[in-house]
Amino acid sequence: MTGRVFAAWLVLASGLCFAEAMNEERAVLGGGCFWCVEAVYQSQPGIKSVLSGYAAGKKANPTYEEVCTGNSGHAEVVEIAYDPAVISYEKIIELFWDAHDPTTLNRQGADEGTQYRSIIIAQSAAQREAAEKLKASAQSKFSNPIVTEIVDFTEFFPAEDYHQDFSERNPGHPYVRGVIDPKLRKLRDK
User: Fold this and answer.
1) May I ask the CATH architecture of the domain 24-189?
2) pLDDT tens by residue, 17-26
3) pTM listed for this prediction
4) Which of 19, 84, 112, 130 is 20 to 30 A removed from 148 (C-alpha atoms)?
5) Which position among 17, 33, 36, 68 bears the catalytic label?
């Protein structure tokens, strides 16, 4: 490839990457163990990627062990990159209400602690407003009050590599078979 052809290819490739990024928005939320939440959203059309991590706490670059103590203030969350032309932020939040119990404070199933709290971390004023409206609307589905926190985004810290794509990489793991697989079946049956 000559210098000019390479330069033209580089400009074109950069433009494609930029155009692809233009059709991408992010949502950050937590509803218990991030392995479950990750698996729920990975199967949805329009979802480009789901990254497990930590947010809404006070410690920079926390480790899993630090988050598990409950002292970091962080919740286990996922950062979802999605194409808004295929799936809306509203649809992502509507699925959130179905994917976990937003009425239990600091727990989901056997997972207990502030790191497992139900939380939506708004990336913008528009997301916060939408999340608040959707929370109010979803309340009619539940007999107990929704305790989901809605907070503004500050920083997201990716979890360790062994937490990423956990369900896909560990289909025989007892947690996957006993918790995640039944949850996914229940959601598919809806």
Assistant:
1) 2-Layer Sandwich (3.30)
2) 444 456 899 9
3) 0.87
4) 84
5) 33
Read off the pLDDT of residues 142-173 as tens digits, 9 standing for 90 and up.
999 999 999 999 999 999 999 999 999 999 99
How many C-beta neighbours within 10 Å does residue 133 have?
Answer: 12
Amino acid identity at 10: L
The residue ranges of every structural domain in the chain are 24-189
HEC profile for the chain? CCHHHHHHHHHHHHHHHHHHHHCCEEEEEEECCHHHHHHHHHCCCCEEEEEEEEECCCCCCCCHHHHHCCCCCCEEEEEEEECCCCCCHHHHHHHHHHHCCCCCCCEECCEECHHHCEEEEECCHHHHHHHHHHHHHHHHHCCCCCCCEEEECCCEEECCHHHCCHHHHCCCCHHHHHHHHHHHHHHHHC
17 a catalytic residue: no
Beta-bridged to residue 79, according to DSSP, are: 28, 51
